[in-house]
Amino acid sequence: MLRNYLKIAFRNLMRRKLFSLINILGLSVGIAFSLLIGVYIIQEKQVNADLKNPDQQFIVKSDWKVKEMGLDITTVAPLPKAMKEEYPHLVSNYYRFNPVTNVVSAGDKHFKENIAIGDTTLVSMYGFPLLHGNTEQAFRDNNSAVITESMAIKLFGKTDVLNERISIAATTGEQQDYLVSAVMKDISKNSVTGLFGETYSVFVPTIGNRYYPGGDPAVSWQSIYEIGLLELRPGVTPASMEKPFEQVLAKYADETTRANLTVKLAPVRDYYLKDNNNAVNRVIVTLSLVALFIISMAVINFININIGTSTYRLKEIGLRKVFGGARSQLVMQYLTEAMVLTLISGFLSVIFYEALRPFFSQVLQTSLLPCWQFSWVQIGFFVLLLLAVGLLAGIYPALVLSAVRISKAVKGKMDDSRGGMILRKSLLVVQFSLAILVFICGLTISSQVSYIFNKDLGYNKEQVLIVTAFPKQWDSTGVGRMMAVREGLKQVPSVKAASLTFEIPDRKPPNAASLQGEGMDQPVLIPALNVDENFGKTLGLNLSAGTFFNDKGAHIPGQVVINESAAKAFGWTAETAIGKTLKLPPSNVLTVKGVVKDFNYSSFNEEIGPLAFFHIEDALSYRFFAIKVVGDDMTAAINSVKSKWKELLPNAPFDYFFMDDKFASLYASELRLKKATSLATVLNLFIVFMGVFGIISFTIARRNREIAVRKVLGADIKSILLLFIKEYAWLILLANVIAWPLAYWFAHQWLQQYVYRVQQNLTPFFVAGLSVFGIAVVLIGLLSMKPATSNPVRNLRAE
Amino acid sequence: MLDLKGIYKWVNAGNNRTFLLKDINLTINEGEFVSIMGPSGSGKSTLLNIIGMLDDFNEGEYYFLHESVHKLKEKQRSDLYKRYIGFVFQAYHLIDELTVYENIETPLIYQGVKSAERKALVADILDRFQIVGKKDLFPTQLSGGQQQLVGIARALIGKPKLLLADEPTGNLNSAQGEVIMQLFNELNKEGVTIIQVTHSEKNAAYGSRIINLLDGMVQK
């Protein structure tokens, strides 16, 4: 029986090549897109699943009463350790690390690396697989380092590097040596070593560490910038930890911390998905919706075309019934056909998948698995997807067609052609609505993205080279040396300005200062950044009043520059602020030297708030050189800066990026979304118009006689074309009516996350609506041209 | 009313030229009721289509109301037959998607008649053919005879001078056929020129003149 079904199925596919082609193309594009998205989602959900006991792992987060008091992602350094010691029946393990970036050297090789100065529980707690070394005791002693496979290759050219010596530059200006005691297999994406997007490659013990002048950074209850993680005992819930946290804080922490800090535990398992205001989850939901749209479009095409062309099949159905075919058998036969078609499409979609994989990996900034590496779970999902699509596409036509009464079927007439028509038209309206909806949303996303990239930020991000400043020796000697390097860099002809700074405008400065303005009775917490007097000039900040520190001449201690919002927060204007003093505990008094116009120092999701600039020679910490270069030949400019750098700092790696690239990377998810929606728009339109093409083809074939009659009755070409266009114009109009409010709502929701955003206007709506209409008119025109111009006699005679 | 002079029509199949019509010379005056007869394939329908300007001919001259049709452009020709000619088909050729009323109205729309006037004209003809009660039905809901009545009503709605009918009773039973032929007779008496193609001697007898065709030639 099945063989018979298959044979009939193939013959039918072959006989109606055009429609088979439309169906297969549409379905395979839809399935391929779903497959790409599906694999992406599975991979994203898989992040952190490889960790040992993933459901018992938690991140210790901080909820400060005043946001500026600390970071939410870090905690009080000794807290996790104390929790394990005081509550061993609740906490089974802890890991803390202090994330730093500095130069790691082996022999004469120097690299800028992310280094985690942390506890030695790293490997045993999370079960990271080792290539070399002892899993139970990865760190032999406090002079041991654990590095990743690729780090080993970078430094030594091989992975078996146990007992090799590496040295890490410290902020004291010294080097600290370590012996490699274990080499980890490269770690897959996870929220422990990749907590804030950066990946760490070198791990050293916090005990005995000399990176900071004070030694081990994890012992002081004053230090609140340590990353802390806990593994709870099985069955222990985060809620049951609330009291223990309070008790430990009460026992050890100081008054301010106790009063302002609430400790929160966030599960590591889904941290990646939920981090950053649900960013990854939102992308997943958006992409799933888009994939769902596209696949339903393809399924709708299949249903529409199948029912529309069913007149070809009715006679066959009638005869089968006459000869005793049961309805269930007919349904099976139709389903088999749908399945065969879906399977062919599925096969094609795998080819599409492979072809599109590199492009998608780039858009989604991940590496999608090649299809030959699919796990059984992924293959299972794929097969389920195919079955579901086949069933969805096949079941309705199967039920409708098999239900046609014998007498009508044999004559080749549908029971109720009007009913079928309404269904077909509603499905078309659904398709058009979805296409227009995605189109409008895509256009809105594009316009927000171009707004982000074209808005006047208040500083100039173009042609600013950011070079990591090494060595990081955070004292007056170190700063003095770096200032000398800055002066050296300025001598390069293509360098217009250079600045030594701790911050660049890619985030809200995490350190806040408690500043009390002259005449104020309360201090305010204001994010502060440490920069030098050239920072304003290098980044093109606009001064409202005063000067950017002492820009002509030697450094004068005790000066501060604030932005206009800060001036307002102190109750001053830009002009009156100059010369006013600010009290900074414990006993510093700063004089306001300049006021800059507000600028976008972080992403558009955050409102511009008060900001204070401290001079780097007062604050004594730095991370970057910002270098403004001029000229058209950037490569040459970079090379000249680089050779000067090598001359000034022969042992420091020249690690650089451009400010505008950094800026763009803040909006990676927006750019990703923009690309994804543009692609989805194109695919949607492609599938819809393929469907419309199919439907018009068969309606025209069926209406040949009608067109001929109309021509005989005196219709000219124009009125025949209008006849068809009018039919679809209504559908498209209706689809616009449905899609516009939805699109407005979606776009509105999406735009809400930005403090600085475009106003929605009618342009995207009209562009989407009119282009869909335009394409439809052209398509209909082309298709109906032939019957409209052909000789009616021929079509009438065929009757 | 119309004059055909030396009309030839052929099709080329490979090297062979098959003649559908050969040297047709025919004059039909106003008020005539002509029946074209002949066996299948003798060229009856082709001749009718040429007279109705639905089909081209390869050679000869055709004058319709003193216009030389063979010199007219497509557009002018279509204007001409839109105004003066009505068609009735063997298979009715009603538009299934339109109601009886809309079917009859269609030619008026194409002739650019105003809506109010259309309403009046359609109402008149529905009344005359006694099918007012059927005006909102679809063609599939009618019997063959009723469908043909609608077909004729549609052909007459534009007040043509010439009615062309290609086997108008071919799909009908004899009683229904009788009704249609009676109707033609009446119309003819009112001054409509009618040319019909028929197989039936009896139907042909309603006409005032019979033209016999054989192998594309008029038999004398």
Automatic annotation (TrEMBL), chain A:
Domain ABC3 transporter permease C-terminal, first and last residues per copy: 289-401, 680-790
Major location category of this protein: membrane
Transmembrane parts of this sequence: 21-42, 283-305, 334-356, 376-406, 427-445, 679-701, 728-746, 766-785
Signal peptide: none
Residue ranges of coiled coil: none
Alphabetical keyword list: Cell membrane, Membrane, Transmembrane, Transmembrane helix
Domain of life of the source: Bacteria
PANTHER family reported in the protein's UniProt record: ABC-TYPE MACROLIDE FAMILY EXPORT SYSTEM PERMEASE COMPONENT 2 (PTHR30572:SF18), MEMBRANE COMPONENT OF TRANSPORTER-RELATED (PTHR30572)
Protein name: ABC transporter permease
Originating organism: Terrimonas ginsenosidimutans
TrEMBL record, chain B:
ABC transporter domain residues: 2-220
SUPFAM superfamilies: P-loop containing nucleoside triphosphate hydrolases
A Pfam family hit: ABC_tran
Key words of the record: ATP-binding, Nucleotide-binding, Transport
UniProt cross-references to CDD domains, sorted A to Z: ABC_MJ0796_LolCDE_FtsE
Record InterPro entries: AAA+_ATPase, ABC_transporter-like_ATP-bd, ABC_transporter-like_CS, ABC_transpr_LolD-like, MacB-like_ATP-bd, P-loop_NTPase
GO molecular function, one term: ATP binding
PANTHER family for this protein: ABC TRANSPORTER ATP-BINDING PROTEIN YTRE (PTHR24220:SF648), IMPORT ATP-BINDING PROTEIN (PTHR24220)
Identification of the protein by name: ABC transporter ATP-binding protein
Organism listed in the record: Terrimonas ginsenosidimutans
